C-alpha cells in the first residue's frame, strides 16, 4: 500500500473543517475589500493587499501576489471583482508550485531508502512530538516498520510523551537517561533500527532556540553520528511549525533554516486558527516544500500537503 493512498482517507472533509476559520476570515475580508466595486482597480488592489497581510500571508509574499494580479489586470484590461477570487486562486497556486516542485513520485522514491531517516526539529510546544506520533501511525499503517528515537533528552516530558505515542501506535522507542547526549540516542536508534530491518526512523530533537550556535552544533553532531550508521542520513530534516502563531512561525523558520539544512516543513494546528495563510507565506519565503499540515487532534488529521487542493479549499465559494 503506497503512503499516498493512506494519507488521503477522508482528506477533503478534514481539509474543509480544518481550514474553516481561515476561510471565513479571508472571505469576510475579501467581500469587504470589493464591496460596491465592479472592477479591479487600485483601491481594490490596496484592499486586497491588506486582506492578505492581515491573513498572515506575510508582506513579501503579499507583494508578490499583488504584483502578479496587477500584471493580469494590465494585460486583460477589464477584470471584474467577481473574477478576483478565481484569479487569486490561480496566482497563489502558481506561486506555491514554484516553491514545491517535489512530486508524490519523488517522495515515494525517497522512501525506498532503508531505513529512511527523518530528523525532526522545531521549538517546544509546536506539536513536534504529536507530529512524530501521527507520522509513525501513518507509516505503520502503510506497512512500514518504524522506530522512534527520543533524542530530546533535556526535557523528561518530551521523552515520556514520545514513549506514550510509541505505545499507542505500537512502535519501539529508543531512549536513554535524562540529560544523555542526544547524538548517542540517535546512534543507538539507528543501530537498533538497522539491525531489526526497519523501514523508517524518526528522531526527535531538542527544541531550544536560545542560542543558535549551540543548536547548530548539536544538530550537526547528531547528523554526523547518524552517518556512522547510515551514511546518507538524515534523508529528511523536518521542521515543525505551529500555524496558529502566524508571524512567529516565520521567525522560527528563519532561525532553524540558519541553524541546519531543513528539507521539509510540517505546519500544525491549522484547525484552531484563522491564520492558515501562513502556509502560503512560509512556503514562498523559504523555498522549502510544505510536506505535512496538521488539521486536528485525530491520528488521521495529519495530511500530506496538496497545494492545489489547499488553495482550492481556501478560496472555494461558501
From TrEMBL:
One Pfam family linked to the record: SRP54_N
The family this protein is said to belong to: Belongs to the GTP-binding SRP family. FtsY subfamily.
GO annotations of cellular component type: cytoplasm; plasma membrane
Subunit and partners: Part of the signal recognition particle protein translocation system, which is composed of SRP and FtsY.
Lineage: superkingdom: Bacteria
Species of origin: Microbacter margulisiae
EC number of the protein: 3.6.5.4
Protein topology in the membrane: Peripheral membrane protein
Domain SRP54-type proteins GTP-binding: 289-302
Localization per Swiss-Prot or TrEMBL: Cell membrane; Cytoplasm
Protein name from the UniProt record: Signal recognition particle receptor FtsY
Database matches in SMART domains: AAA, SRP54, SRP54_N
Alphabetical list of InterPro entries matching this protein: AAA+_ATPase, P-loop_NTPase, Signal_recog_particl_SRP54_hlx, SR_rcpt_FtsY, SRP/SRP_N, SRP54_GTPase_dom, SRP54_N_sf
Binding residues annotated for GTP, in chain numbering: 122-129, 204-208, 268-271
Gene Ontology MF terms in the entry: GTP binding; GTPase activity; signal recognition particle binding
Catalytic activity annotation: GTP + H2O = GDP + phosphate + H(+)
Record's keyword terms, sorted: Cell membrane, Cytoplasm, GTP-binding, Hydrolase, Membrane, Nucleotide-binding, Receptor
Protein encoded by which gene: ftsY
Enzyme class: hydrolase
Annotated function: Involved in targeting and insertion of nascent membrane proteins into the cytoplasmic membrane. Acts as a receptor for the complex formed by the signal recognition particle (SRP) and the ribosome-nascent chain (RNC).
HAMAP family on file: FtsY (MF_00920)
Coiled coil (UniProt feature): none
Example GO BP: SRP-dependent cotranslational protein targeting to membrane
Amino acid at each position: 500500500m503506497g503512503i499516498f493512498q493512506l494519507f488521503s482517507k477522508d482528506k477533503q472533509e478534514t481539509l474543509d473543517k480544518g481550514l474553516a476559520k481561515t476561510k471565513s476570515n479571508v472571505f469576510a475580508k475579501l467581500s469587504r475589500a470589493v464591496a460596491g466595486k465592479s472592477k479591479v482597480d487600485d483601491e481594490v488592489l490596496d484592499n486586497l493587499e491588506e486582506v492578505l497581510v492581515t491573513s498572515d500571508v506575510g508582506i513579501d509574499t503579499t507583494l508578490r501576489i499583488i504584483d502578479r494580479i496587477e500584471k493580469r489586470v494590465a494585460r486583460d484590461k477589464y477584470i471584474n471583482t467577481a473574477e478576483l477570487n478565481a484569479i487569486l486562486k490561480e496566482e497563489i497556486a502558481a506561486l506555491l508550485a514554484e516553491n514545491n516542485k517535489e512530486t508524490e513520485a519523488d517522495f515515494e522514491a525517497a522512501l525506498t531508502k532503508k531505513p529512511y531517516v527523518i530528523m525532526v526539529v522545531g521549538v517546544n510546544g509546536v506539536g513536534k512530538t504529536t507530529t512524530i506520533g501521527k507520522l509513525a501511525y501513518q507509516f505503520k499503517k502503510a506497512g512500514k516498520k518504524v522506530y522512534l528515537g527520543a533524542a530530546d533528552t533535556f526535557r523528561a516530558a518530551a521523552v515520556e510523551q514520545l514513549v506514550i505515542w510509541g505505545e499507542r501506535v505500537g512502535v519501539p522507542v529508543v531512549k536513554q537517561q535524562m540529560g544523555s547526549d542526544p547524538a548517542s540516542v540517535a546512534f543507538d536508534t539507528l543501530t537498533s533500527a538497522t539491525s531489526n530491518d526497519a523501514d523508517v526512523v524518526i528522531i526527535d530533537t531538542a527544541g531550544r532556540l536560545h542560542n543558535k550556535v549551540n543548536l547548530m552544533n548539536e544538530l550537526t553532531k547528531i547528523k554526523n553520528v547518524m552517518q556512522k550508521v547510515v551514511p546518507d542520513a538524515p534523508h529528511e530534516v523536518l521542521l515543525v511549525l505551529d500555524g496558529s502563531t502566524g508571524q512567529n512561525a516565520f521567525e522560527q523558520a528563519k532561525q532553524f533554516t540558519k541553524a541546519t539544512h531543513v528539507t521539509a516543513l510540517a505546519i500544525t494546528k491549522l484547525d484552531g486558527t484563522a491564520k492558515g495563510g501562513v502556509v502560503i507565506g512560509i512556503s514562498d519565503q523559504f523555498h522549502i516544500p510544505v510536506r505535512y499540515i496538521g488539521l486536528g487532534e485525530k491520528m488521521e488529521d495529519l495530511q500530506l500537503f496538496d497545494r492545489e487542493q489547499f488553495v482550492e479549499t481556501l478560496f472555494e465559494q461558501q
